[in-house]
Specification:
By secondary structure, this protein is an all-alpha fold. Helix content is about 55%, strand content about 0%. A hairpin with a 2-residue loop joins strand 1 and strand 2.
Length: about 290
């Protein structure tokens, strides 16, 4: 490991912690505050206070970040490896008794656009489905750790149980690996999704326009767009006491509207006031 590896979380544009996304987060927060400076300035001020970043809930976030980082490094669980494996299995499975590359003549810019749209929608609806499943009676003990945060900071999105992190990695592998293998089987070429600077264009836009505000004290709302896109304020409602059954969506609000779990964003929410030892939550013990 060299020095650059230690700062890859800031230099890798494929991660939400990329430095440019922190800049855009601050810009969006300041623009939100500027609309009503006298009323909203205290929330921006919290970002520069020790109490916001160094409370019990935030410290639990940091412990989980280090724990998950160390655990998954030791296990050698790499999402990319899983994706490639699922892609190969998908291709081999389809190639049994079916002709390959039957749409090879259609490979080109149009197929890349269609592939990107399908992948984005498939990725989002499976995120919605897994998130909603995590709120079921069987998986709630795992997901409950994420909802036990009594203070939301931009790093709370990393506050997840190792089992939940593994489930999301498997979901990513199944969706992206399955789509990649299917595309190669149909077109005889590798898939070419929409890329910007070498990373997914949809991921770049998602992170650039407010992803790091979803877990924060800044209730940025999208107005009428909230019927189509999940705003930071809507996700904060999901973390509120008594409102966790709303807004399961990741990027798009259409799934919540289709399945009756949609609610608009709010300026103020009540967060759980819990100070439960982290060890009890990790080992899924009842509170």
């Amino acid at each position: 490991m060299n020095l650059t590896d230690l700062f890859s979380w800031l230099t890798d544009p494929g991660q939400r912690t990329f430095w440019l996304f922190w800049v855009s987060t601050l810009v969006l927060a300041l623009l939100w505050a500027a609309l009503d400076w006298q009323e909203r300035r205290p929330r921006i001020g919290q970002w520069f206070s020790r109490a916001y970043w160094w409370n019990t809930s935030a410290c639990q976030d940091y412990v989980l970040i280090l724990l998950n980082g160390a655990l998954f490094t030791l296990l050698g669980v790499a999402t990319l490896v899983l994706i490639l494996r699922v892609a190969n299995v998908t291709y081999e499975g389809l190639n049994v008794g079916l002709p390959a590359a039957v749409w090879s003549a259609w490979h080109g810019p149009l197929s890349a656009v269609v592939y990107t749209l399908i992948l984005v929608l498939l990725d989002d609806i499976t995120r919605y489905g897994l998130h909603r499943a995590l709120h079921s009676r069987w998986l709630w003990p795992v997901h409950r750790l994420h909802h036990s945060a009594s203070v939301l900071t931009p790093l709370t999105f990393l506050r997840v149980h190792p089992l939940e992190k593994l489930m999301y990695q498997c979901r990513t592998a199944l969706v992206h690996g399955g789509a990649t293998g299917s595309y190669f089987f149909l077109f005889g070429q590798h898939s070419q999704p929409w890329l910007i600077f070498g990373i997914s264009g949809s991921v770049l836009l998602f992170n650039l326009f407010g992803a790091n505000l979803r877990h924060s004290n800044i209730p940025l709302r999208y107005g009428r767009l909230e019927k189509w896109l999940i705003s930071p304020a809507q996700h904060q409602v999901h973390h509120g006491v008594g409102t966790s059954r709303y807004n399961y969506g990741s990027a798009f609000a259409i799934w919540d509207r289709m399945f009756g779990s949609w609610r608009p964003g709010a300026e103020h929410i009540e967060l759980p006031d819990q100070r439960i030892p982290l060890a009890r939550q990790l080992f899924l013990r009842q509170f």
